[in-house]
From TrEMBL:
Keywords: Aspartyl protease, Hydrolase, Protease, Repeat, Signal. The keyword Repeat applies. The keyword Hydrolase applies. It comes from the Eukaryota. It comes from Manihot esculenta (Cassava). GO terms for molecular function: aspartic-type endopeptidase activity. One of its GO terms (biological process) is proteolysis. The active site is at 89, 285. This is Aspartic proteinase Asp1. Residues 71-415 form the Peptidase A1 domain.
């Protein structure tokens, strides 16, 4: 499994899984609920304020699931501003750039290292506090904020938080140049699935993420979305006025997994039939190129897929690309060549009350054709890579649909879409 980065910050993930899997006392439940109520009233006020502004920002994306393994966005940052290529990651909060502070250990980057301004984020800043492990926010130097983020593939970035200007163009023609906090990363450790990039764009739910910062400055609503094209490229957007909400299948964000974009628990449905595999906690993570199921769901899926393939002209074959691949009589050119042998499966989420919302995986959402012309399964065993019981929906399964993370309303939505052209407004997009 060469390229399968998972964009999670590991420390936080383990803490949170501990909370869910361990027994949570009544008092911590109370605390959680109260916290949610205060969030809601703040949310209502900010949407009223922001509705008057109503602008969106659209960024073209480059990259693909295979062979590149990620999607990147170009951001212009600094004074004077310079372009940087960033990996988009809805699984983590902090945005950081490889940084000349000077750099102790930087990995190969497409652009010269970022030179930070002298505008340090102080230790007491809530953004700094939000990035420290719970209960461990001690300010050795009150004038600066040190951070360290670790990802599930073993990669990490260590550095200091600074503020700098981001240049952003809105769809309504307005140009923004807000001062936002970002990490100046001077010590990077490449993970298993390392890519040559200038940094990571953190799009998570935490207050340090770029969309949260833009929203707290009253500039753009805290709504983000992406449309990853199966032919490569696509777009990322911030703001609400580029899609038609009535066409999107919405489901509430999980309260249990409040740090990640999770629609909660699901059942695995194979070819329209219930499998009995339930209680699958899933998260959406654009920082992961492939999808990971926990060993229970992974084994169930393999069993069903293989049962369907028996008697079909496909045979398992070793391939460097991914652990499970099939070859045919001739090398396959595209998924269309194998689509008839593979069924669609789904995760069916309970979206409040009794309604269920399905996230479907057609063969295009779980297979790739390797350079050797084999069809390979882009669903991996998450338990094997340390994700414990969690299920991670990665780029491969989000292709050719619009996935929207609405932090104002605390809902996640998806709808099939053409990701090949950039939206100008919701009228031209749909
Ligand atoms: C990122 O996107 C740019 C286009 O904006 C593209 O030219 C570049 O090759 C991509 N960079 C990487 C490292 O993939
Ligand atoms: C924003 O728009 C201006 C003027 O059209 C253009 O020169 C600039 O490159 C754009 N910047 C970004 C970040 O897209
Ligand atoms: C998935 O990973 C777990 C943990 O390494 C392992 O016990 C299990 O056998 C794996 N399942 C399959 C089908 O490979």
């Amino acid at each position: 499994m060469g390229k399968g980065k998972v964009g999670f910050s590991v420390m936080a993930l383990l803490v949170i899984l501990g909370l869910i899997l361990g027994s949570s006392s009544a008092s911590s439940d109370d605390r959680r609920q109260r916290w949610r109520k205060t969030m809601l009233s703040g949310e209502m006020m900010s949407s009223m304020m922001l509705n008057r502004i109503g602008s969106s920002i659209v960024f073209p994306l480059h990259g693909n699931v295979y062979p590149i393994g990620y999607y990147n966005v170009t951001l212009n940052i600094g004074q004077p501003s310079r372009p940087y290529f960033l990996d988009i990651d809805t699984g983590s909060d902090l945005t950081w750039l490889q940084c000349d502070a000077p750099c102790r250990q930087c990995t190969e980057a497409p652009h010269p290292l970022y030179r930070p301004s002298n505008n340090l984020v102080i230790c007491k800043d809530p953004i700094c506090a939000s990035l420290q492990p719970p209960g461990e926010h001690n300010c050795q130097d009150p004038e600066q904020c040190d951070y360290e983020v670790e990802y599930a593939d073993g990669g990490s970035s260590l550095g200091v938080l600074v503020k700098d200007v981001f240049l952003l163009n809105c769809t309504n023609g307005k140009r923004l140049n807000p001062l936002l906090a970002l990490g100046c990363g001077y010590d990077q450790f490449p993970g298993r699935d390392h890519h040559p990039i200038d940094g990571i764009l953190g799009l998570g739910r935490g207050i340090s993420s770029i969309p949260s910062q833009l929203s707290s400055q009253g500039l753009v609503q805290n709504v983000i979305g992406h449309c990853l094209s199966g032919r490569g490229g696509g777009f990322l957007f911030f703001g609400e006025d580029i899609y038609d909400s009535s066409r999107v299948a919405w489901t509430p964000m999980s309260r249990e997994l409040s740090k990640y974009y999770s629609p909660g628990f699901a059942e695995l449905i194979f070819n329209g039939k219930s499998t009995g595999i339930i209680n699958l906690l899933a998260v959406f993570d654009s920082g992961s190129s492939y999808t990971y199921l926990n060993s229970r769901a992974y084994e169930g899926l393999l069993f069903s897929l293989k049962r369907e393939l028996s008697g079909k002209p496909l045979g398992e074959t070793p391939d460097q690309t991914l652990p499970l691949c099939w070859k045919g009589k001739k090398p396959f050119k595209s998924i269309r060549d194998v689509k008839k042998y593979f069924k669609t499966f789904a995760l069916s989420f309970i979206s409040g009350g009794r309604t269920k919302t399905k996230f479907e995986f057609s063969p295009e959402a779980y297979l790739i054709i390797s350079s050797k012309g084999n069809a390979c399964l882009g669903i991996l065993n998450g338990t094997e890579v340390g994700l414990r019981d969690l299920n991670v929906i990665g780029d491969i399964s989000m292709q050719d649909r619009l996935v929207v993370y609405n932090n104002e309303k605390q809902v996640i939505g998806w709808v099939a879409a053409n990701c090949d052209r950039l939206p100008k407004s919701k009228i031209s997009f749909f």
